[in-house]
Amino acid sequence: MAKVLVTGAAGFIGSHTTDLLLREGHAVLGLDNFRTGHRRNLAGALASPAFELLEADVAEPGVVARAAGRFRPDAIIHLAALVSVQESIQDPVLNRRLNFTATELVAEAARRHAVGRIVFASSAAIYGDTTDLPITEETAKQPISPYGEAKLQSEGVLLAAGAGLTARCHRYFNVFGPRQDPASPYSGVISIFERRYREGQGVTIYGDGRQTRDFISVHDVARANVIAATKPGIASGAANICTGRATSLLDVVAEFARHYPQVPPPRHAAARAGDIIHSLGRPDRARTELGFAAQVSVADGLAELIRAG
Ligand code: UD2
User: Fold this and answer.
1) How far is the C-alpha of 177 from the C-alpha of 305, rounded, in Å?
2) Does residue 275 line the site of ligand 1, with CB under 6 A?
């Protein structure tokens, strides 16, 4: 049994990671200020005696350090973040605070209280809009948003922290699954489409729909997080967390249409400014360094999402 401090525990990825840690018999201190997380995401966790919730802001100096001093975690999974690329452009100061300063505070808390591991939510956004596919960890890092830039700099802070700390930086690709917030037009496309199909409305495809993404289930992402936090003998490093499979939006829509044959077909609108056409990661390093490989197909993940609806 390990003791794990999860920041952003009430968020999309944080709550699934918390649930999996608890299922595997670990003790979790979840930290969240509910800026974008939701208490309902923790309904299962809150029923467990092995879970404790701390409502606090990870970017507030002293908060993580005090939590680590009291809870004495073996690992910190740092997922609290400003999650919207769009919002990072509109409010770069807040982005800096939540996506960079908070990481420094987590690293400092780990150092002060001898926490041996940090798992960090990085992003494929650090690679920018490269056309050199599939993206490997060596691909040039040229972020094109404050969000991607802060994630890249956070990786630097963690990977330079020194021998006492094992830092694992997870470069998530397009994560989808239950509890992802569909509220904004810039939310993940699958969560937007799921809500529209469930409500019987057609979806809008920006462009011709042949654009592809490496969609990975949040259950696989949670498993990668738990492995990185708890598996013995893991060294520091950064790795793509992806499937290595490209799925087009037309494929996604065809899958939804199988479940909702009565919903009108999609309409097409102009491609979004700045949209990338293809994104695909190479998953080999996570397999070698963590023993992690994604298992959930897009078809199975969508079916689960629709059931969870
Ligand atoms: C963006 C973010 C990424 C993450 C992700 C949400 C950048 C560089 N990256 O990536 O960090 O936040 O969004 O999972 O900004 N689309 C439609 N109809 C819709 C919504 C989207 O056709 O109603 C298209 C969209 O134009 C794009 C594709 O679906 O071509 C995927 O969109 P997305 O927002 O889910 O993901 P992505 O990879 O653009």
Assistant:
1) 6
2) yes
Q: How many domains are there within the chain?
A: 1
Extended strands (E) in the chain: 3-7, 27-32, 51-55, 75-78, 117-123, 166-172, 174-176, 204-206, 212-213, 215-217, 237-241, 247-248, 267-269
- Note whether residue 203 is domain-resident: no
The range of the structural domain enclosing residue 47 comes to 3-176+217-242+282-294
Residue 301 lies in a domain: no
Residue 236 has pLDDT above 90, yes or no: yes
Assigned domain for 154 exists: yes
Nearest protein Cα to ligand 1, atom 8: 125
Q: pLDDT, tens digit, for every residue of 104-156?
A: 999 999 999 999 999 999 999 999 999 999 999 999 999 999 999 999 999 99
pTM, rounded to two decimals? 0.97
Tell me how far the alpha carbon of residue 289 is from its chain's centroid: 19
Q: Is 40 in the pocket of ligand 1 (CB under 6 A)?
A: no
Q: Is residue 252 part of a domain?
A: no
pLDDT of 184-224, one tens digit each? 777 899 999 999 999 999 999 999 999 999 999 999 999 99
d(CA 28, CA 225): 13
The reply to whether ligand 1 has any atom less than 6 angstroms from the CB of 205 is yes
Q: Which CATH number fits the domain that encloses residue 19?
A: 3.40.50.720
Nearest-angstrom CA–CA distance, 276 and 287: 27
